[in-house]
Amino acid sequence: MTRIIKNTRIAVSEILKGNVIGLPTETVYGLGADALNPDAVIKIFEVKRRPRFNPLIVHVHSAFEFEKYAKDIPGDVYKIAEKFSPGPVTFILKKKNIIPDIVTAGLDTVAIRIPDHPLFLKVLKNLGRPVAAPSANIFGRISPTNADDVFKELNGKINYILDGGRSKVGIESTIISFLNNKITILRPGFVTAAEIENITGKTVISRKNTGKILSPGMLKSHYAPVKPLYITTDTYFEGRKEILGAGILDLMKYNNLNTAVSKLFSALRKLDEKDYDFIIAIKVPDTGIGVAINDRLERASKGTVRIETDLLKFKYKKK
Ligand code: TXA
Ligand code: MG
């Protein structure tokens, strides 16, 4: 049985024991373990059923920690960290040997971020060690944004979940690579390419533009509910709650994209728990944080639907 706790001291001692634990961050909940202890990190992969080739993010409490674990850090990293860390950005940097290979799936780079959550930061400071943590969901599923959702995903598989309330951002961090003297966004998130360009004064490449999969974790079919999810851009679906056995996710009903993104994963989970045969999500405008929302919807979906006739087709194919 998994216990939901609020005491960071229990969390620290659990991590020091080499166990994995649910931890709150501002983006989504993480499944954390001592990043310097390979036996503990292996447990993350086992609990999540995550393939070993998919590397983990290392969480630290301050930008002063970066150089303990990474080398040749470009100045732009500190410029961005100054503005957005703690916060929803992850830096891909050249790794130092102190980081075990299991964390980085054998890559010579490491992903580092400073989570913006008071409880997680307290754990990191008191632990005095970095914490490796992917999102706290079973591999391929929707990332949890509160302690109860972690409980539903992982009850019985871990001893504790540290409850830090609802994740206020609601979508995973923006992953930025600085390799080969280029700034590349490998996973869109709350911090946008335009914001990074403003700070650095440099052109930022987006993964979508390159068309190549640069990060092993950028797999298709990710962030998916149990029920089939389809996406649409058809205005026909706007303002509807359900149609022909499908629950509809209409994020535009929240009046801005920041609120929409904070509800994205919890709304998907709720639709998943209802009696619908499948889910249809309406895409949002592809600007600002909308890029990250559409990225997650696309990767969670089985395809695109247009109008009612498509729906009927899916319904009858299913039976
Ligand atoms: O907001 C977040 O980033 C959350 C919270 C818990 O911090 N974490 C998260 O972790 O989303 P995860 O494991 O679900 O996604 C991490 C992504 C994966 O797609 C992985 O492939 C990529 O980061 N990644 C990790 N290390 C990398 C590296 N060295 N090079 C390229 N991609 C890397
Ligand atoms: Mg994940």
Layout: helices, strands, pairs:
Elements: E1 3-5, H1 8-16, E2 21-23, E3 30-34, H2 38-48, E4 57-59, H3 66-69, E5 70-71, H4 75-84, E6 89-95, H5 101-104, E7 109-113, H6 118-127, E8 131-132, H7 147-154, E9 160-162, E10 174-177, E11 183-187, H8 193-200, E12 204-206, H9 207-210, E13 229-232, E14 242-243, E15 246-249, H10 257-273, E16 278-282, H11 290-300, E17 303-304, H12 307-318
Parallel strand pairs: 1-9, 4-7, 6-10, 11-12, 13-16, 13-17, 15-16
Antiparallel strand pairs: 2-3, 3-8, 4-8, 5-6, 6-7, 10-11, 14-15
Helix pairs in contact: 1-6
This protein binds threonylcarbamoyladenylate and magnesium ion (MG).
Notes on the protein architecture:
With 319 residues, the protein is α/β, with parallel strands linked by helices. Helices cover 34% and strands 19% of the residues. It has helices at 8-16, 38-48, 66-69, 75-84, 101-104, 118-127, 147-154, 193-200, 207-210, 257-273, 290-300, 307-318, and strands at 3-5, 21-23, 30-34, 57-59, 70-71, 89-95, 109-113, 131-132, 160-162, 174-177, 183-187, 204-206, 229-232, 242-243, 246-249, 278-282, 303-304. Strands 2, 3, 4, 5, 6, 7, 8, 10, 11 and 12 form a ten-stranded mixed beta sheet that branches. Strands 14-15-16-13-17 form a five-stranded mixed beta sheet, covered by helices on one side. Strand 11 (183-187), helix 8 and strand 12 (204-206) form a beta-alpha-beta unit. Helix 1 crosses helix 6. It is globular. The chain starts with a strand and ends with a helix. The site of threonylcarbamoyladenylate has 28 residues, from strand 6 and strand 7.
